[in-house]
Amino acid sequence: MADVSKEGGEGTMGEEEAAAGKKFSKKEAAKLERQRKRQEHAAAAALSAVSIDETDPLASNYGDVPLIELQSKAVTGRKWTEVADLTEELKDQVVLIRGRAQTIRAVGKKMAFLVVREKGFTVQCVLTVTPDVLSGQMVKYAAALSKESIIDVEGVVSVPKDPIKGASQQVEVQVRKLYCVSKAIPILPINIEDAARSDAEIEKAEQAGEKLVRVNQDTRLNNRFLDLRTPANQAIFRVQCQVGTLFRQFLLSEGCIEIHTPKLIPGSSEGGSAVFKLEYKGQPACLAQSPQLHKQMAICADFGRVFEIGPVFRAEDSFTHRHLCEFVGLDVEMEIKEHYSEVMDVVDRLFVSMFDSINQNCKKELDAIGRQYPFEPLKYLPKTLRLTFEEGIQILKEAGVEVDPLGDLNTETERKLGQLVFEKYGTEFYILHRYPLAVRPFYTMPCYDNPAYSNSFDVFIRGEEIISGAQRVHVPEFLAQRAESCGIDVRTISTYIDSFRCGAPTHGGFGVGLERVVMLYCALNNVRKTSLFPRDPQRLAP
Amino acid sequence: MADVSKEGGEGTMGEEEAAAGKKFSKKEAAKLERQRKRQEHAAAAALSAVSIDETDPLASNYGDVPLIELQSKAVTGRKWTEVADLTEELKDQVVLIRGRAQTIRAVGKKMAFLVVREKGFTVQCVLTVTPDVLSGQMVKYAAALSKESIIDVEGVVSVPKDPIKGASQQVEVQVRKLYCVSKAIPILPINIEDAARSDAEIEKAEQAGEKLVRVNQDTRLNNRFLDLRTPANQAIFRVQCQVGTLFRQFLLSEGCIEIHTPKLIPGSSEGGSAVFKLEYKGQPACLAQSPQLHKQMAICADFGRVFEIGPVFRAEDSFTHRHLCEFVGLDVEMEIKEHYSEVMDVVDRLFVSMFDSINQNCKKELDAIGRQYPFEPLKYLPKTLRLTFEEGIQILKEAGVEVDPLGDLNTETERKLGQLVFEKYGTEFYILHRYPLAVRPFYTMPCYDNPAYSNSFDVFIRGEEIISGAQRVHVPEFLAQRAESCGIDVRTISTYIDSFRCGAPTHGGFGVGLERVVMLYCALNNVRKTSLFPRDPQRLAP
């Protein structure tokens, strides 16, 4: 896709790109004329695919919209109704809808049923041959539409006696006019109905001896723009949008400022294998693995409390269900007056209010997700449980799980602890704090009373770590000392240390991955399901 | 800074990073002990810098806070008042504030004035030697504080008769207690007062024969965390945050979904010089120059209307006041029913409501910016003026400016047109649409009535292009044809073209740079002033 961006990429900084096009002059009229002809040819080609019967006196009621009509020819003032808004209140009214032909079924030559989908909502549209209104040719035209084509349907809303099973809306549209705005190819890489099916449905069908298509993850991701059309995916990214919105709203209401830190940072060979390296105008550079340095600098720059929502890059070779090479980081950094519990307080209130709001505002979306991927609602307390790391170790010990009291927890132990905490406290969302110093980054502030521990915390959802946070060392001399203790060459981080020499507030912060929040909140089994276009060690496209 | 991220970078995806630390065992107690000693030593070192007179019976009222007290030792329940909130209503009350010692001035041995700054707001604090309350040694201690050190001040609010010139708050604090939380080095790379001065002040002083320090841009940017402490910079990034917030709020209220598209995309050698290239797990990759492809795919995925706020990367060698190598793109893409004017309608309402809100909600910030960088408020109409490109050419022609009627406008001509439009219509914000097709990217939809023109637009603020938008070609065959006409090898963009083959909505969108919006709204002369940590061909740090 390099050429697309090269050609312009929406010129926000882009007069050059626009200028990259050639300049016209009157001499080039001939070339223009050729272009005009080509354009007409394309329009004609689009039309030629239509098999309209010219002898049908009702031919103007249906057909493919020619390209020229779609080139902003006119503003007609017509109003389209959204499929989601089609309810009984509109009974007997004429509506115009635009959506996709999800399924098309002709019943003999006199009737056809079209399920039209828009943004995951579906409505059944009925074509019935009626003299002087709807011709047999029109039913034929409808029956020949390819699935996923975009169509304009004009018709009258009716309310059938029996509930409708094959569509989300409980009304029908008695079609009068039908136009195809954009044709899909006849054979799609993925059938949306196949992609939208739950495992349970497939298994049930199998038990009944019927073999249904199971769309595997790679096929889905290779054709992501199709896969995303399923109701569950439509819902997942609406929930993701809500999570981002709630995160932001809460933090703004707490006096935080949203910042944007650079993703291109200086990088030397010491960067390690988890860093994407590149050349920046002759200098070695890399992609930021977190906004850590810059968000701390923003605190040293007196912004008080800051947050950022932006991409984070990890070149790790992790092939797990929870790792991506690029994900959306939700990062917070804030001055603290006295204690790192001030940071945990923000985490607590932020997430509890976020969960409350999602439950309240995203009912339809959670239902849609649950229909394909059934899950139990997250259990959390109004005031988030906080356990110290030592208490966590103790709980594990009592359950017979022996772990290094000053080591880190592995994924399996975290899951076990989550289970034990749930049994004991009835919550799947909790904070574990006072981690051993040795398992945290060098810039973590040690505990005042025991340097084996640190003023840090992790937060867990359904037994998986989701947030990591801490008080930071703000004293430059001590920071240098801590770096040295961790075997880091202090000279390589002098910029970082120097930013604390001109008066540094006591501060702390935390970071969380947007995709993981959505994944774990909805108990999905793979972070690729909650990333719009996921990037992992084997996937860089689409 | 590679090592900082290596060590953890706040483990949102990070159990590995955390585990990168070594595991402790009981055997390592000796090492722990050494660490404990070092930590005590660091604390002692911090203390040793303090020249507290142990014989002063009032010595507990002042001094440097030892490190251990700043390691989350206790939650005392003390309440700090923000400097911005210090008003006459608090007269005679005891307050505790935390801020920076901006200026320190001793008057003899019995009195000292401290200006304390917090988030750009300042208050004058007065130390007066008083028996049994405030000692001469305490005045000496205060006088010896280094500028920009962070201090806790406890004192009584008083209201002086005369207005206070040297601080933003019109009350004083009669100091009782004074503690230094974090010391700044005695000689700072930048003096905040110097950095905060307007050109007018410097020139006025020069005329009076006084030479004031003028901090140049490179010095500012090299020490950005200091430079950002000036009231104007504090305000600029609060306005930037507001612009992002208003952009988002408006679009969410219009039914848009916020999306996050990948910044790492497949890239071949054809990418051109404006692309940052890198290796992605053995594959050639590059950094997205815009979310163009992916936001269009999101439209093909039925999201209806989407927007994104995220970094955009341009490797161009542009050394102008308005170009950056990394900036924050505000991008919108939306289905259109009939006409690209639907996109312009969104631009119109979005920006007018944004300007209205900034004027209303950011008065203090705009004042702070104006004090250092005086500017006239932006003049805009409640309904944004729209001119066709042909009309724009005509206006220029009438003013004697001859330009190619089918070419692009250069920066100079744009500025001239902005001036003429302002004279004629009284607005500094307007839309120019129906651009010549040849100067737009290949995916721009040509006009239905004349293929020399396109369904596209640019938007201008104060004579500079700020937004670029258009209807896109959604018909795959026509798109391929357009690409060919522009000399693009269709095979290199097959993924892009294929995403329109499964039914593509008619759609359009636009993009704008956050930094440019703030720069032009506030009539600042350089986009580096509105980028938190700017990146240009010569700057990759801090």
UniProtKB/TrEMBL annotation, chains A, B:
Give any single GO term for biological process. Answer: aspartyl-tRNA aminoacylation
The UniProt annotation puts the region (Disordered) at: 1-37
Q: What Pfam families does UniProt report for this protein, alphabetically? A: tRNA-synt_2, tRNA_anti-codon
The record's section on CDD domains has: AspRS_cyto_N, AsxRS_core
- What PROSITE patterns is this protein classified in? AA_TRNA_LIGASE_II
Care to name a GO molecular-function term for this sequence?
aspartate-tRNA ligase activity
Keywords on record? Aminoacyl-tRNA synthetase, ATP-binding, Cytoplasm, Ligase, Nucleotide-binding, Protein biosynthesis
From the Swiss-Prot or TrEMBL record, state where the protein is found: Cytoplasm
**Known catalytic reactions:** tRNA(Asp) + L-aspartate + ATP = L-aspartyl-tRNA(Asp) + AMP + diphosphate
Record EC number: 6.1.1.12
Q: Report domain Aminoacyl-transfer RNA synthetases class-II family profile positions.
A: 237-534
Query: So which domain of life are we looking at?
Result: Eukaryota
HAMAP family reported in the protein's UniProt record? Asp_tRNA_synth_type2
The entry assigns this protein to a family as follows: Belongs to the class-II aminoacyl-tRNA synthetase family. Type 2 subfamily.
Please identify the protein, giving its name as recorded.
aspartate--tRNA ligase
Organism, as annotated: Coffea arabica
Tell me the classification of the organism that encodes this protein: Eukaryota, Viridiplantae, Streptophyta, Embryophyta, Tracheophyta
Encoding gene (name): LOC113719104
